[in-house]
Amino acid sequence: MMWPFDQFTNPKSPSRGTIEAIYGMIVAQAREPAFYKTLGVQDSVNGRFEMIVLHLWLVLRQARLQSDNTAFGQALFDYFCSDMDANLREMGVGDLIVPKRMQKFGEAFYGRAAAYDRAMADETNPHEAMAKALCRNVLNGFGLDKARQLEAYVGNAAATLARVDASALRSGHWRFPPAIAAA
Q: Exposure of 150 by Cβ count < 10 A (0-12 exposed, 13-18 middle, 19+ buried)?
């Protein structure tokens, strides 16, 4: 039997379970020990946030490049926001403060996404531009050599995602490259 509301669903929008699984892949990759032990990312709440934002940006960038994946990208970003909200509440942040913190998270995400997009579009030296953006955002301005290693990983991850077609991206049938490959 055909449900009357089925006509309003987007067949290219993955289920919540798929979005949760893909977001789980992003978080798991962001927590890879090599980023913290070898590539100089601070193993702290801020360092982990930066790595989640970086990996989320990589996936959302690829979704944006694939016109079929706008609904997927939005669903993934929405899930990120709900996860950040839930984490704040779990840490005991009060209801009146959560919206202010969420606004700061949004500003941080969009600021970093813009910086990473500019770096990727740099016509003179995109690798160095990305290394500087990573140094500033992820490594708190310290360790340009480590940022260059992290940039090699980001370039490899972006290339890996570029080889993933639109349906595979939104279904989660892909993997990030190993973090240590850049080290």
A: buried
Higher pLDDT, 122 or 12: 122
Give which of 180, 151, 178, 175 is closest to 161, Cα–Cα: 175
Residue 175, helix vs strand vs coil:
coil
Q: Of residues 115 and 13, which shows the higher confidence score?
A: 115
Element (H, E) at 129: helix 126-137
How many C-beta atoms surround the C-beta of residue 47 within 10 A? 18
As a whole number of angstroms, the distance between CA 35 and CA 157 comes to: 14
Cα 4 to Cα 165: distance, rounded to the nearest angstrom: 31
Amino acid letter, residue 22: I
Q: Give the tens place of pLDDT for each residue, 148-157.
A: 999 999 999 9
